[in-house]
Amino acid sequence: MGYDKFFAEALSRLHDEGRYRVFAELERIAGRCPFAIWQSPQGPRDVVIWCSNDYLGMSQHPKVVGAMIEAAARMGTGAGGTRNIAGTNSPLVELERALADLHGKDSALTFTSGYVSNQAGIATIARLIPDCLILSDELNHNSMIEGVRQSGMDKKIWRHNDLVDLERLLAAEAPGRPKLIVFESLYSMDGDIAPIGRICDLAERYGALTYCDEVHAVGMYGPRGAGVAARYGVMHRVDVIEGTLAKAFGCLGGYIAGSSNLIDAVRSYAPGFIFTTALPPPICAAATAAIEHLKASQWERERHQKRAAQVKSVLSAAGLPIMQTDTHIVPVMVGDPKKCKAASDLLLSEHGIYIQPINYPTVPKGTERLRITPSPYHNDVLIADLAEALVDVWRRLELPLKRPALAAE
After folding, report:
1. Which residue in 162, 186, 334, 397 has a CA-CA distance of 20 to 30 Å to 169?
2. 16 HSE (CA, 13 A, CB side)
């Protein structure tokens, strides 16, 4: 039997639907955020990155780079294996202490990625609670969905950020049944924020544990960069906070923070922690440097918010169909997978602007979009160039503008 035909057919379906993914080869340039070199078919070209999750450019910060180089020179590049076999390297211990302090929790535990921390964290926590019911927001990230699925426990899905629906589901259960509410603080595709305090109100009323994914908010919100829950003064009410080191902190890895017993239980039972290699010392040292810098420095957060507001203002004035949000996420709606990919291709090839298309299954069909993420280093000239390029692409693809663009007036 020719098995390869099944893979070819699967790929052909993606091409037909306009959602086959192509990865551009990019070389980011340390010290020149947001610029990069694109290895195009015609040779190297300078481009501007507009969709990186390295939100604050911390991957290029001198303190972070220096900490990584120093740790690598002193301790080597690898962790040597799982923590159960190779032990725990000192930078990793320091990193987990810094994360626990950041979130005001007893303990923290790191994983190889934010995906794994959700997958392993949710599944393990739920499995360790007899007859646990998981209540999951319908727009939760795939990593959270997988954690819920792999737990094997009962689940109910509540409508996105709908507290009436959440309470309806909570009230339908026996008062003594253990419950785990899992949600995100900031939903990265639409850029909206969860009503964390009110979710905690319901959790307390109905005896539920709360698990909040802060991956798109850590480093960026709150007085020390602990996230949205800290920004609104409710972090202490959330039982488990999950985050990433790979976005605003500019490194790699994920983590959960919570009570000593909960974290120790996950450490002791989670296969996704036990059976995988630990984060290497240079990564841990760099992440700690980023966390400690952002605990003290407000410049990156303040500048970032100003740049995001400027992008929204300029793109709106140009008539582009952006989704208005209170966060740093700037979605520009397209609504067609093939045109979304074509818009991305034109921006890169014609304007030197890199923005990846966001298609199904990342977002529902019919809501395809370009997801723009400004950094503190996108200046007024780059923002004006972005608006001009987007208007040009919208016209060439015959996509609707909300009103005549400024360039045409």
Report:
1. 186
2. 6
